[in-house]
Amino acid sequence: MLRIALGTLRLRWVSFLGTVVALVLAVAHLTALGVVLMSAAEPAQRPPHRFAHAPAVVLPADPHWDSAQHDLGVRSPAAARGLSSRLIRDVSATGTTVVDRAFYAQLADGGTKKQVGHPWPVAQFGGYALRHGRAPRAGNEIVVPSGRARTGESVTVLTADGPGRYTVVGTVTPVGWEDAVFFSAAEAERLSPRVDALVALGPVERVRALVPDTAEVLTGADRHRADADAADDREALDNTLTLLPVMAAVAGTTAVFVVASTFAFAVVQRRREIALLRTVGATGRQVRRMVRAEALLVGCLASALGGALGLLGTRPLTGLLIAMDIAPPWFAVEISARPGVLAPLGAAVLTGLLVALCGAVAAARRASRVRPVEALREGTAEDTAVPSGRAALGLVGLAGGAGTACWIGLAAPRTVLSPTAYVVSLLVPVVAIAALAPLLVGPVVRVLTRPLRRLRGPAALLVRQSALTSRRRTAATAAPVLLTVGLALSLLTATDSLGAARDAGFRAGVGSPYAVVPEGGAPGFSPRVAERVARVTGVRVAAPVLTTVYFPDGDGRLAENDGLAVDPEALRRSSRLEVVQGSLDDLDERSMAVAQRWGMEVGDRVRTRLADGREVTLRVAAVYAALPGEDVAYLPERFAGTGPFARDGLVRRAALSLAPGTDRPAALARVRAVLTDSGARLTTRDGLVAAEAAQARRLTETRQRSTAVIVVLFCFVAILNTLLMATADRRRDVTVLGLAGATPRQVLHFFVAEALLVTAVGVTLALLAAGVNILGLGAALHQLFGTAPIVVPWAAVGAVTAASALLAVLGTVVPVASALRRRAA
Prior knowledge:
Layout: H1 2-11, H2 13-41, E1 57-60, H3 77-81, H4 85-92, E2 97-100, E3 105-107, E4 115-119, E5 130-133, E6 141-145, E7 154-159, E8 162-172, E9 179-183, H5 185-191, E10 197-200, H6 204-210, E11 215-218, H7 228-269, H8 271-279, H9 284-323, H10 339-368, H11 375-380, H12 388-410, H13 419-435, H14 437-449, H15 459-469, H16 471-509, E12 514-518, H17 527-534, E13 539-542, E14 545-552, E15 558-565, H18 568-574, E16 578-582, E17 591-595, E18 605-610, E19 615-625, E20 633-635, H19 638-641, E21 650-651, E22 654-658, H20 664-674, E23 680-684, H21 685-728, H22 731-739, H23 744-785, H24 794-822
Parallel strand pairs: 4-9, 6-8, 15-20, 17-19
Antiparallel strand pairs: 1-10, 1-11, 2-10, 3-7, 5-8, 6-9, 7-8, 12-22, 12-23, 13-22, 14-15, 14-18, 14-21, 16-19, 18-19
Helix pairs in contact: 1-9, 2-7, 2-9, 2-10, 2-21, 7-10, 7-13, 7-16, 7-21, 9-10, 12-13, 12-23, 13-16, 13-23, 14-15, 14-16, 14-23, 15-23, 16-21, 16-23, 16-24, 21-24, 23-24
Protein name: ABC transporter permease
């Protein structure tokens, strides 16, 4: 049977072309995603930057702190306290030491996310060299990268201590890993008392012997852990590692389904040949062996080509991730004979082989069961029955999809906030409806064509009956449209609805008509700026200072949460917190308000560790229902206004309102004047909601839209591929229509109408599948945000649908036009 399989492939290569193309794309897709994912999981070690020329760096450390278990950007309590004075004295006894401090410092005329302040003595260890001028000596002198300011120029620098005027006395060569402003050692100590790192120039072994468990000594490549961009690297790679499995799961499942469907359809197209083999004495076992041999040959060829194409596609995929700001700019994939490349390549190739075999065996089993006496009838009439296994799988999948949607909507609404879990759940109803497509095609075609029955002429009747009598072909060609539109509609609706719900919930919680927000993407602004605004007559300001608090979680580790230190009266006046237990009126200097989902009760006394290492016991005075992403602990204002570490805190945003009888235009004008060169600006409630929404949506939209784009592009190829494959096999239908008197134009119109009907069937089934997802989404958003409308991006979905229809028509017209040109021969 292997010889017959080879001969069949050689003579009927056109019939298998669509299967080969689909399988090549699927394997290439899985290979590229797998290789990039493995490279992101084990990235190449980057060289140190900040302390590249330092022999050893001492950092504060906590042996019980695992940064992987905590949110990005959160310091351990030891790092928040910094190095102790005693440790610095002990290490200094071994030789020369240089203290480093890292703190918020931004030029008022604009800056970047990487702007940071340092004392000048540590500049030498990062490779900085003066290009012009000299080092800063006085408190009002700074050195900046060349291009930011000129030597001798007076500039405003924003710090946690407030805006200050400094004179640029020197410039250094810019670097890519940070945008530093260098101060004198004394000024840096005033702005940031905490010592973040210590460069030790003495013997490394002596330094190690003196350093206790509360600190660590870094040498060699480990010094990169002291770089500011090490945290950015981890955040970027975490985003990549979060997104790629979602893309691989969604796109991989889609690819596997399309490939299996395409291969099964290819076998169905050759049922006449298989039936004729049965009439000349071929046994069912021989037929199955032949089809499996064909699948194995096709699978080996297509998987090998797909694996090679996938390896070539890793660089474009990496470039796409970098361009979308998902992967860091330095991220690269090295193609070599290593496990990180060979493992995903082998897995993708094996998946391609298994998909080809499974897609062929299911259809071959049905064909091999045909009795010889029924072979001729089986060869001229399509079997419209759906295999019991496929029907059962589709029904179980549909029930599972509906159950998952109900569970998310009623019991686990926060699942919609996790793209990793939620995007995969959206697949289930779509794939289940695709599996049931042969059962659903008949009723859907009848409903869609009912209004066309009144049209004159035979065209509408022919199109209708052609779709009904060839349901397997109709289902196979409608499946890619169903997957494309169904997944696009589900993903994009979830993204836009979640964003709209966040906006509405955030807007409802803002109780002030105005707000003061940082400029230029800065993490915040100085509390001193808020104090100046509060001194404007008739202006009321609530300016919570952002900090971090640590609560014991019961498992032996600390759970970190954002904290806002704020005056209770200002909090009551400016916010609309939905208090579910206790009252904000009970807030005092020894109590706090916490989010409901933390599981605390009013009256609980919680041992709380503050960002500077102090431990206090606070009573829970109020519990409120927090919006997703807005769960913070509201702390007494004294934790932002006292202590040596108070200047480290910044105001993320301040609520601003006007007292009754205040001249609004005059007061707002004075506020804007106060905010000049302060790093903050005045905005309205709508402007605040828009800014917060843009920041909150960025990562979620990037994940879901990028997944949707990749899946839709693959499905577009599947639509074109399947229609070309199906129409190319219908040359006999073209001839019959011509013999019946149809003109070439009429024949072309018939096939175009049929392609549009197939598209309509796919879109209808997509709406049914997406409806299950949207019902669960609506219930989940209602629980999370209260009243939350479902927002369907009709323009984007319409564009995807139109593109699907265009590709379906294109995939039909090309082979039909070719057949019409050859009809005379």
